[in-house]
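Sample entry copied in:
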Amino acid sequence: MDAQKPHPLGVDPAAVGVALAWVERLREGDIGALWSRTSHDYRLALTQWWVTANPGVCDDPAVAGKSRDVVADEISTGHHPLFDHLRGVLARDLRASVADLEDLELAAGTAARVVSPGVELIALFVADDVPDGAFAPGATARAVTVAVAQEDGQWLVTGLNCVAVPGWPPTWSPVTANLED
C-alpha cells in the first residue's frame, strides 16, 4: 500500500505498527532501538532540549569548538560519544510519560487525526478500558497519543503526546487522544 494515500479504514496499519512498536521499546527503556524509528525533527528537538538543560555539554572535549547547532545535529544521529548520556536521560524522562501504562495491553483507535500533510495522530488506548473494542457515549480510556510522520517514505514517530518542533529552545505542541471527530 502506498503510505502517502489515506488508508481506506482511516488508519494506516503501518503507522499503527510503528506507534505500537515505538511505545513498547520505550516501555522497555530501549532508546537505542526506538531512535531509528524516530523522526529527524523529534530526535533533534529532544537533543536540543537536553543540550539546553545541560549547557556544559558544549564544553565537552568530544564537541570542542563546535556550535550548539552542530553539537545537537551530531548527537541526534545516535552515533556520537555523548549520545549515551542523552539516552540515559531519555530512558528516564520519556519513559515516565508512559509509566501509568506499564504492563497494560495497548490497542490502536480506528481513526487517525491528520495534523498536517504527512503527520497523523495515533491513539493507543488501554485495551481493558475499551470493552468489546467500542466506546460507549461519554466513555473515557487511558491512552497515549503518538504523532507519526512520513519521512523518506516510511512512518516515524515525531512526538509522544505532542508534536515536537526543533529550535532553541525546542517546543512541544500538545496533542490529545480525543479522536472522536
In short: Helices lie at 13-28, 31-35, 40-53, 68-76, 83-96. The chain is about 30% helix and 20% strand.
